[in-house]
């Protein structure tokens, strides 16, 4: 009955902003000092609960200067919230929650499903559509969300299946965006596309382990670093995720070749991980470097919308000169010790 009511409501007001109540439950057992995750420290972890239309989040636009967070759902919906980040990078508060759907079916066939990555662009965002293999330009116009144009055609990349297109996107300079697909060609090579406003080009391939796939990326152009989020799932291990880093400049010189990223740490169910799909980089007031992650609950009652913040550690190799040189020994050692224990 609730689902039918919600469907009828959205049919009557497809683009209207909707105020919602969101409840947060902090991870139990997370100490004030946080939890070490390889080359990172988890400083906060919460599970978010909302109304039936809440969930499915796979992309993040975090603006710490204006204290705003925007999350993209794979059902063509944006969740807007005011955000408070603590001095040391910990997520302290999300409030004033509003969701907006796109005007009617302008975002994608089927009511805007399979929208995956969110990148600030002009006065709005670039949003990747996985089944359409493109990126559209969308913004808030009055009370509605509208898709203004299809900006980037990514369908020229061959070998992608219909539901494993470009899940990851990040702005790597003022006029350049990188896209990385979830789909891997030949078992371990995910296509990388660069776009500078003209024709997109296949730069090369991102290599990862066979059971992991790319779900999002975020950049710090000032230090030439791209952070990549990967996820995996099987019935024995449950959901897992990896955070990796590589040099942005290496992407521009691939010439069709492969790149491997350095592992910063791995998350599993013991860390509170679920289907982790969104990542955003930010600096806190004390100058620390941090990452915000969000999970996609797939609107499944046994999955969760998880938000966690990870503070990058200065004890591991994170400099641009060392990023992208392969697996980080400290991170891998921490992962092995945790899994063996």
- Total helical segments: 4
User: Any idea of the CATH topology?
Assistant: Neuraminidase
Compute the gyration radius: what is it? 19 Å
Task: Estimate the mean pLDDT confidence.
Answer: 87
Poorly predicted ranges (pLDDT <50, ≥5 residues)? 1-12, 108-112, 327-331, 333-341
Sum up the overall morphology in one term. Answer: globular
In whole angstroms, the N-to-C terminal distance is 46 Å
Can you tell me the CATH architecture?
6 Propeller
Proportion of residues in helical segments:
under 10%
Q: Provide the structure class.
A: mainly beta
Q: Got a strand count?
A: 24
Sketch the major β-sheet: 6 strands, antiparallel
Order of helices and strands: HEEEEEEEEHEEEEEEEEEEEHEEEEEH
Domains (count): 1
Question: What is the beta-strand fraction?
Answer: over 45%
CATH class group: Mainly Beta
Protein name: Esterase-like activity of phytase family protein
Pfam families: Phytase-like
Region (Disordered): 318-341
Biased composition (Basic and acidic residues): 330-341
């Amino acid at each position: 009955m609730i689902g039918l009511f919600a469907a009828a409501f959205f049919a009557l007001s497809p683009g209207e902003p909707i105020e919602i109540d969101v409840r947060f439950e902090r991870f139990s057992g997370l100490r004030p000092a946080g939890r070490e995750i390889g080359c990172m420290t988890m400083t906060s972890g919460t599970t978010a609960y909302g109304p039936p239309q809440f969930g499915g989040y796979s992309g993040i636009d975090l603006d710490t200067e204006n204290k705003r967070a925007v999350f993209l759902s794979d059902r063509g919906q944006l969740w807007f919230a005011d955000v408070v980040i603590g001095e040391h990078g910990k997520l302290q508060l999300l409030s004033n929650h509003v969701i907006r759907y796109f005007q009617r079916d302008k975002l994608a066939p089927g009511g805007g499903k399979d929208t995956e990555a969110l990148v600030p662009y002009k006065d709005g965002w670039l949003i990747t559509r996985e089944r359409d293999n493109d990126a559209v330009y969308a913004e808030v116009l009055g009370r509605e969300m509208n898709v203004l144009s299809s900006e980037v055609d990514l369908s020229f990349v061959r070998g992608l299946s219909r539901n494993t297109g470009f899940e990851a996107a990040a702005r790597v300079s003022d006029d350049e965006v990188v896209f990385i697909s979830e789909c891997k060609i030949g078992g371990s090579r995910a296509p990388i596309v660069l776009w500078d406003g003209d024709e997109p080009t296949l730069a090369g391939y991102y290599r990862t382990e066979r059971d992991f796939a790319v779900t999002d990326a975020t950049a710090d152009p000032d230090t030439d670093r791209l952070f990549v989020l990967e996820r995996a799932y099987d019935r024995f291990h449950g959901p897992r995720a990896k955070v990796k880093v590589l040099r942005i400049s290496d992407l521009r010189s691939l010439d069709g070749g492969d790149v491997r990223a350095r592992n910063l740490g791995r998350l599993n169910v013991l860390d509170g991980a679920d289907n982790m799909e969104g990542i955003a980089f930010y600096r806190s007031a004390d100058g620390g470097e941090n990452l915000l992650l969000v999970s996609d609950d797939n609107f499944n009652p046994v999955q969760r919308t998880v938000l966690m913040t990870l503070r990058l550690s200065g004890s591991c190799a994170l400099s641009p000169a060392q990023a992208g040189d392969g697996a980080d020994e400290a991170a891998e050692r921490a992962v092995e010790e945790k899994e063996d224990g």
